[in-house]
Amino acid sequence: MKSLIRIVMTGAFLTAIASAATWTGKISDSMCGAHHMTTAEHGKAKMSDRECTEACIKKGGKYVFVSKGKVYKIDNQDYAGLAEHAGHMVKLTGDMTGDTIKVANIEMPRKSSKKHKAAA
Questions:
Q1: In angstroms, rounded to a whole number, what is the distance separating the alpha carbons of residues 81 and 77?
Q2: How far apart are CA 101 and CA 84, in angstroms?
Q3: What is the helix (H) or strand (E) element at residue 40, kind and residue range?
Q4: Per-domain residue ranges of the chain
Q5: How confident is the model at residue 17 (pLDDT cuts 50, 70, 90)?
Q6: Model confidence, pTM
Q7: What is the CATH number of domain 20-108?
Q8: What is the pLDDT of residue 109?
Q9: CA distance 106 to 20
């Protein structure tokens, strides 16, 4: 019986890994989506995407993920990396259902060695 449970658990784990996908895009907010209109929204002359996202979240907006101009809802709004990466370009891994993503991982994209060498 224990062997059967292990096989089922392993199969479920492998299925979860296989169904996860990774996208590159930006963590934004539902009030702004793909385009931050910083001057009109917050009464400041200029805000960064991060500052704008944080301000909109405080006003009741939800985190969203923007990739290739498309805005995706984020299912697990309490995921710790969302606040950390607000306004940043990221690599996001998760499962998509319709236009909603359940986040499994968020990380900053790594720079290629060519870009790194050129900057040195």
A1: 10
A2: 18
A3: helix 38-42
A4: 20-108
A5: very low
A6: 0.73
A7: 2.40.50
A8: 85
A9: 13
Q: Which amino acid is at 88?
A: H
Radius of gyration of the chain (CA): 18
Bridge partners, 97 (sequence order): 100
**51 by DSSP, 3-state: which?**
helix
**Average pLDDT for residues 47-76, to the nearest whole number?**
95
Task: Name the residue with tokens 């990221």.
Answer: 90
d(CA 64, CA 62): 6
CA separation for the pair 63, 106 (Å, rounded): 13
How deeply is 120 buried, as exposed, middle or buried, from its count of CB atoms within 10 A (0-12, 13-18, 19+)?
exposed
Joined together, the tokens standing for residue 44 give 């400041």
DSSP 3-state of 115: helix
